[in-house]
Amino acid sequence: MKEGIGNIFQNETKYFREPYSPGDLERQNKIEQLKEKVVDKLISLPQPDRENGQPLWKVINKRRSIREFVKKPVSLQALSQILWAAQGVSLKAGEFYLQTTPSAGALYPIETYISVQAVEGLSPGIYHFLPKTQALRMKYEGNFSQVLADAALNQDFLAEASFVLLWTAVFERTKWKYGERGFRYVYLDAGHIAQNAALAAVSLGLASCPVAAFFDDEINSLLGINPGKETIIYLEAVGWKK
Ligand SMILES: Cc1cc2nc3c(=O)[nH]c(=O)nc-3n(C[C@H](O)[C@H](O)[C@H](O)COP(=O)(O)O)c2cc1C
């Protein structure tokens, strides 16, 4: 079958490390080694607070992209609150679970992963957020902060964040309905999600920085996802401003 323009665009706009250097294999081996501690553990998150917090206008005014963090733990409540703001369920309507951020056709093509680096009550590792149950599934245990920063074009501030949100796209969820135009919608969905997370972070006294510069294949391999079906499209570092 002829490949659609969306997939071609997505693949041709990836960043690659070029030219190939011997360090690439070493880096890949390090990622695979770190992923050896596979866990499949479900963790319930505290219920998000849907009522209180700083006024919206103040929060919008205060949001900035921050690139200097002190690596202090954030509470599990704060992580839960930010995940809920990004992708939590705010209305159950019949069989639909409507999320806090809009999604074209309510098809929700974005998945949220978290590189936990300093969160109270959670071991460092890679987690997957499950919006319907406000829970996490731990995938890999270990400290991925530096390999993640390296994979993001050596933006070292990612390693100092308390956690990094990693958003992947499952394009097929939107494509079956909207065809190639669906690609536009998926990227727009991710923008809504990232902004809600950024505002939630400010409301909790935290700071964030969105990041779209990364070596796509390295992050996909870090997350252990099937890049034929799902691929990284956006990151956001969250932590305490220095
Ligand atoms: C799609 C997108 C990708 C971005 N990627 C990066 C990035 O890789 N690294 C970075 O330091 N900032 C990144 N930024 C943050 C922008 O540099 C920042 O939003 C801009 O300078 C405006 O500053 P402000 O966010 O403080 O208002 C990104 C922002 C967006 C919206």
Q: What are the salient characteristics of this protein?
A:
242 residues; alpha+beta; NADH Oxidase; 8-stranded antiparallel beta sheet; two-stranded antiparallel sheet; 10 strands; binds flavin mononucleotide
Describe the secondary-structure layout.
Blueprint: H1 5-12, H2 23-34, E1 38-44, H3 56-62, E2 69-70, H4 76-87, E3 89-93, E4 96-99, E5 110-116, E6 125-130, E7 135-141, H5 145-151, H6 157-160, E8 163-169, H7 172-178, H8 182-203, E9 207-211, H9 216-223, E10 231-241
Antiparallel strand pairs: 1-7, 2-10, 3-4, 5-6, 5-8, 6-7, 8-10, 9-10
Helix pairs in contact: 3-8, 4-8, 7-8
The structure holds flavin mononucleotide.
Flavin mononucleotide (FMN) binds at residues 64-65, 67, 155, 209-213.
CATH architecture: 3-Layer(aba) Sandwich
Which series of helices and strands comes N to C? HHEHEHEEEEEHHEHHEHE
**How much helical structure, as a percent, in the residues?**
25-40%
CATH first level: which class? Alpha Beta
How much β-strand is present in the residues?
Answer: 25-35%
Bound molecules: flavin mononucleotide
Number of strands: 10
Ends apart, CA distance between termini: 51 Å
Whole-number mean pLDDT: 95
Query: Rough shape?
Result: globular
Question: Could you give a short account of the major beta sheet?
Answer: 8 strands, antiparallel
Number of domains: 1
Enumerate how many helices there are, as a single number. 9
